[in-house]
């Protein structure tokens, strides 16, 4: 991963910016509902890679009926926020070396994480996912269509790399970033994205499109 933007600074030093961005993203839950409509995770063991402040453990984890939901993140400050939010089963670790035994989960879920892995790193992460997944396991991920991420691969390269690793686009959802105010929108996006930050409208909203992609094993 590259380490030259506010995203990385937020992971290490200022997790509240990432928390506020996450709260603003898909405020009506359209992406979550699309995922739930396309999957059946009842009685499944699910690993979330890059759980951040624990947002999805409070929505997808409960609504999916998963038997177990493990929350992994490499950022201790973000895991602290997740713990404060009531998230359980927290693991500190890196996707390049997952702290789990082989065949220990049935599904891997990750939101806006895989695009940060470049070249051989992405292949290594896929290998680690394959190791911990049970036979016939799946990876489901969310990726952006509308917002360019400075630390991530350019959008064309990102999608090409994921496609080469066997990810298939399942759906895309039109949604938005909805901040509490214009001031919050400007502060959060400028901290995280700098000069490449999209411009919010007067209500603190930014159009957003999200792709749902899946990779199956076996």
Can you describe this structure?
The chain is globular and about 50 Å long. It is built from eight helices and seven strands; from the N terminus they run H-H-H-E-H-E-H-E-E-H-E-H-E-H-E. The protein has 218 residues and is α/β, with parallel strands linked by helices. The model is unreliable at 146-154 (pLDDT under 50). It has a seven-stranded mixed β-sheet, sandwiched between helices. Helix 1 packs across helix 2, helix 1 crosses helix 8 (182-193) and helix 2 (15-24) crosses helix 8. It has a single domain (6-216), classed as Vaccinia Virus protein VP39 (Rossmann fold, 3-Layer(aba) Sandwich), CATH 3.40.50.150. Helix 6 links the parallel strand 4 and strand 5.
Please outline what is shown here.
The protein is 34% helix and 26% strand.
Q: What are the defining features of this structure?
A:
single chain; 218 residues; alpha/beta; Rossmann fold; 7 strands; globular
* CATH topology (fold) name: Rossmann fold
Instruction: Work out the count of structural domains.
Output: 1
Count of DSSP strands: 7
Mean pLDDT: 89
Q: N- to C-terminal separation?
A: 29 Å
Shape: globular
Biggest β-sheet strands, sense, barrel: 7 strands, mixed
Order of strands across the main sheet? 3-2-1-4-5-7-6
SS-derived structural category: alpha/beta
CATH homologous superfamily grouping: Vaccinia Virus protein VP39
Oligomer: single chain
Gyration radius (Cα, Å) is 16 Å
């Amino acid at each position: 991963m590259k380490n030259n933007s506010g995203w990385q600074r937020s992971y290490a030093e200022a997790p509240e910016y990432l928390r506020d961005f996450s709260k603003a993203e898909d405020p009506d839950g359209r992406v979550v509902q699309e995922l739930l409509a396309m999957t059946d995770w009842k009685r499944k063991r699910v690993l979330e890679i890059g759980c951040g402040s624990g947002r999805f453990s409070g929505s997808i984890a409960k609504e999916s009926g998963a038997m177990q939901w493990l929350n992994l993140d490499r950022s201790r400050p973000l895991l602290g926020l997740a713990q404060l939010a009531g998230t359980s089963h927290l693991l500190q670790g890196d996707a390049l070396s997952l702290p789990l035994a082989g065949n220990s989960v049935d599904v891997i879920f990750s939101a806006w994480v895989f695009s940060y892995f470049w070249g051989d790193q992405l292949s290594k992460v896929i290998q680690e996912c394959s190791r911990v997944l049970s036979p016939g396991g799946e990876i489901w991920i969310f990726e952006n269509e509308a917002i360019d991420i400075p630390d991530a691969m350019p959008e064309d390269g990102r999608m090409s790399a994921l496609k080469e690793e066997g990810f298939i686009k399942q759906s895309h959802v039109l949604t938005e970033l909805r901040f509490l105010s214009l001031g919050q929108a400007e502060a959060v996006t400028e901290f995280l994205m700098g000069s490449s930050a999209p411009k919010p409208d007067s209500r603190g909203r930014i159009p957003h499109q999200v792709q749902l992609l899946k990779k199956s094993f076996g």
